[in-house]
Backbone:
């Protein structure tokens, strides 16, 4: 079985929230959403931390988000 690790780069801009899926350090796919809509639907504050529900956002499939080693 091939080994890989997935990571997501996030740029939460004022107009667009941009996401880059990286597999083994290489950009595999890009996605973007309207920032305000994305915050309202998939973000929440917990204390001083912003938490994003990437699974519910369906930006990337569960398979793409899986991390294996």
Residues:
């Amino acid at each position: 079985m091939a080994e890989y690790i997935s990571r997501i780069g996030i740029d939460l801009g004022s107009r667009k929230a941009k996401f880059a899926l990286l597999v083994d350090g290489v950009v595999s796919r890009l996605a973007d959403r309207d920032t305000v809509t994305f915050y309202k639907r998939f973000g929440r504050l917990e204390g001083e931390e912003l938490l994003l529900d990437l699974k519910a956002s369906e930006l990337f499939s569960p398979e793409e988000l899986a991390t294996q080693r």
User: Anything to note?
Assistant: The beta strands are 6-12, 16-23, 26-34, 43-46, 49-52. The helical segments are 35-42, 54-57, 62-65. The chain has one domain: 6-64. The first strand starts at residue 6 and ends at 12.
